[in-house]
Amino acid sequence: MAIKEKKISKIVTLILVIFVCLCILIPFLWLVISSLSLRVNLTSIPLKWFPSKLNFKNYNEIIFGSSISSINNSLRKGILNSFIIASFATLICLFAGSLAAYVFSRLEFHGKAALFSFILTSQLMPMMVLIIPVYVIFTKMGILNTKLSLIVADCSFTLPFVIWLMKSFFESVPKELEEMARIDGCSRYGTIFKIIMPLSTPGLAASGIFSFIIAWNEFFSALVFSSTLNSKTVSVIISEFSSKVGVDYVAMASAGVVASIPPVVISIIFQKQIIHGLTAGAVKG
Questions:
Q1: What is the DSSP string of 209-244?
Q2: Residues 93, 234, 131: CA angle, nearest 5 degrees
Q3: Segments of 106-234 assigned E as strands
Q4: pTM for the whole thing?
Q5: 46: cis peptide before it, omega within 30°?
Q6: DSSP states of 36-96 as a string?
């Protein structure tokens, strides 16, 4: 009887996994199919699910720049902006978040639990509540419509997550290793960067990947804080396709596929680090 229950449990689990995978993959597959179709295929009745002839024109214009279309030039600029903003935001969050996480995991001070709870609960506040005061602050600082404003905004979203994840990792590192290093004459910063950080590499990798993906996909703050091409991200540029080239579904789908390639590739390459980072960090804390 127990064997049958295990088999049923495995079958149910497999069905649920397949269902979740289909829910995730089908929209992306349809995006790819739409990007390779002709506009008449997507607007015809009945709908043609698969194109009779593959259309690579939009990819050629976006990637290789064979067209002088301003929207494709803007898209390439937006991809570069997104990469710069996401990279700097990730590096800042990893550096500041790791140091803050070390303080919460190793040091004792008054109000430690309350401060950590406040940092986590700050994630519950919607961006729409903060957007006006942040906009006013950025305007007075003179950094509106710059990459710096988007980096600061992305860091404010991602930093609490990095602190929470890295705190769990640091707590899983034995304190005895630090104590031995301190006895041998290593300073506090020396133990952090020579012992704690190397042992927490999976956590740093997982935190960095998630930070990059969150910053890359951020749309609302990028839409509000950037109105010039020098700071617009790829997500904002894609939203402008409908107004600049009409309702060109094929061009929008092609741009969406190109914009989704970096985070997908990063996730595939570092999937082992992501899994290891999330599971190892859950041992303690």
A1: HHHHHHHHH--HHHHHH--STTT--HHHHHHTHHHH
A2: 60
A3: none
A4: 0.83
A5: yes
A6: TS-HHHHHSSS--SS-SS---HHHHHHHH--S--HHHHHHHHHHHHHHHHHHHHHHHHHHH
Domains of the chain by residue range: 69-280
Q: Is the CB of residue 224 less than 8 Å from the CB of residue 135?
A: yes
* 3-state class (DSSP) for residue 128: helix
Quote the longest CA-to-CA distance of the chain: 77
Q: Using CB atoms within 10 A of its CB, is residue 142 exposed (0-12), middle (13-18) or buried (19+)?
A: exposed
**CATH code for the part of the protein at 69-280:** 1.10.3720.10
Handedness of CA 252, 85, 216, 61 (dihedral sign): positive
Q: Tokens 């590192």 identify what position?
A: 173
Q: Profile the chain (285 residues) by mean pLDDT over runs of 10 residues.
A: 76 90 88 84 75 80 65 84 94 93 88 88 81 90 90 90 88 82 82 84 86 90 88 86 65 85 83 68 46
Amino acid identity, position 76: R
pLDDT given for residue 19 in this prediction: 92
What amino acid occupies position 35?
Answer: S
How far, CA to CA in Å, does 38 sit from each of 53, 58, 65, 237, 251?
8, 10, 20, 22, 10
Q: How far is the C-alpha of 91 from the C-alpha of 86, rounded, in Å?
A: 9
